[in-house]
Design a protein that fits this description.
Blueprint (H helix, E strand, L loop, with lengths): L1 H30 L3 H29 L2 H19 L4 H29 L6 H8 L1 H20 L2 H13 L2 H6 L11 H6 L4 H35 L5 H27 L8 H19 L5 H15 L2 H10 L7 H29 L2 H4 L4 H15 L2
Helix pairs in contact: 1-3, 1-4, 1-6, 1-10, 1-11, 2-4, 2-15, 3-4, 3-7, 4-5, 4-15, 5-11, 5-14, 6-7, 6-11, 10-11, 10-13, 10-14, 10-15, 10-17, 11-13, 12-13, 12-14, 12-17
Length: about 375
């Protein structure tokens, strides 16, 4: 049962992270906002995630997984229900801020518990890759569900369905038996990690990677809408929106496949830094190709390739970092490195939105190139530590 809870937590996280991107093509006209203000919504959500990540990591180490997981499911569902009924920028901004706390509760409970309950706790990077297949599943199903429901029912009801889905795992969370929390954990243990260079390097690796992933999750549909509209100027707007939303689903399916493959590699924890660096190099080439793509088919292929090569970066980084620390402080390790990583999500997607106001989302994706270069360098440094 605890495995179901861990997988459900990461699935819910995927839903939270793809929410704004999935509904972006409907949300911006509904709120009458431009790409810049949409980028601000992303930044506010990610900023709240950053703060909540630090809190959730310490809380998991102190009181265990059960209350954190239950809080995560209920809080995210409530925020989505509020979000569904928002009709102005301010009414949507508030649930964006609060959603971060629920999302990080799910994130920490799922990603810290997963390596303990999968593969007998013996291969942290492989377990992290496997559990994050369900993150990809959340990314995949969210745009698919809303794209279908937008054609069948109202905006409010379509979004509310996502909230109902997030409430279902509460039943399993209440019944599951969890790994024991460490009674000896103290807050000073978490603060002492700030002096550990491994924590900082792993955090900066995630800074670069989450800059890439969050930008793709939130800007793939608007990017797709631009490319498809140019290649098919006479196409129906609803059809274009649906095709653009499906790019995120393609990205997510490819990410699931990539992480499933990575989870079957026995030595991935030992050689994880090389996997991350190679994936970052491929991501660099994909992003450069996206800035000049001219057809819907090209956009779809690049979205798939992006998902495949992005796939192992986050879970492998987490697994490599975990392998260097004892289990009783991994919640705090995860909270710190993920918080550092989320700074990238706060800054970079917003920068893309600001740049897109004067040009296009497609051209603005070149801002992701430096993140790829830094990711290659930092991943290799992490492997030497």
């Amino acid at each position: 049962m605890e495995k179901i809870v861990a997988l459900s937590c990461v699935f819910g996280l995927g839903m939270c992270f793809s929410l704004l991107g999935s509904i972006s093509v409907k949300l911006m006209p509904r709120l009458k906002i431009d790409q810049g203000k949409f980028g601000s919504l992303i930044s506010m959500f990610m900023l709240s995630c950053l703060i909540a990540s630090l809190i959730s990591g310490v809380v998991v180490d102190k009181i265990g997984y059960k209350p954190v997981a239950i809080f995560g499911f209920i809080a995210t569902a409530i925020c989505i229900f509020i979000f569904a009924n928002g009709k102005t920028y301010l009414t949507v901004l508030l649930p964006c801020l609060l959603l971060g706390f629920g999302a990080m509760a799910l994130n920490t409970a799922g990603n810290v518990m997963g390596p303990l309950v999968l593969f007998g706790g013996e291969n942290a990077a492989a377990a992290s890759n496997l559990i994050n297949v369900f993150f990809g599943l959340g990314l995949f199903l969210t745009p698919l569900i809303v794209s279908f429901l937008f054609r069948k029912t109202s905006y409010e009801k379509a979004i509310s369905v996502l909230g109902v889905i997030l409430l279902i795992p509460v039943v399993f969370a209440l019944m599951a038996k969890y790994p024991q929390s460490q009674a000896g954990f103290a807050l000073k243990d978490a603060f002492s990690l700030l002096a550990n260079p491994v924590v900082w390097i792993a955090g900066f690796v995630l800074f670069c990677y989450i800059s890439l992933e969050s930008s793709f999750c939130n800007w793939l549909p608007p990017f797709g809408k631009e490319v498809i509209s140019k290649s098919k100027p006479g196409a129906d707007s609803d059809s274009v929106d649906a095709s653009a939303q499906r790019l995120l689903s393609l990205f997510a399916v490819a990410m699931m496949a990539g992480r499933l493959i990575a989870s079957q590699i026995p030595g991935i924890t030992a050689y994880g830094s090389w996997f991350i660096a190679g994936a970052a190099l491929a991501a660099l080439l994909i992003i450069l190709a996206m800035t000049v793509s001219k057809s819907a088919m090209q956009a779809q292929v690049l979205a798939i390739l992006g998902g495949l090569f992005f796939a192992p970066c986050f879970p492998t980084t987490v697994g490599v970092a975990f392998s260097k620390f004892s289990p009783e402080i991994r919640g705090s390790v995860f909270g710190i490195i993920f918080a550092i990583g989320l700074l990238g999500a706060v800054i970079v997607p917003k920068a893309i939105g600001n740049m897109a106001k004067g040009s296009s989302v497609q051209k603005s994706l070149k801002l992701l190139v430096p993140a790829c270069v830094l990711l290659i360098i930092l991943a290799l440094v992490l492997g030497k530590m």
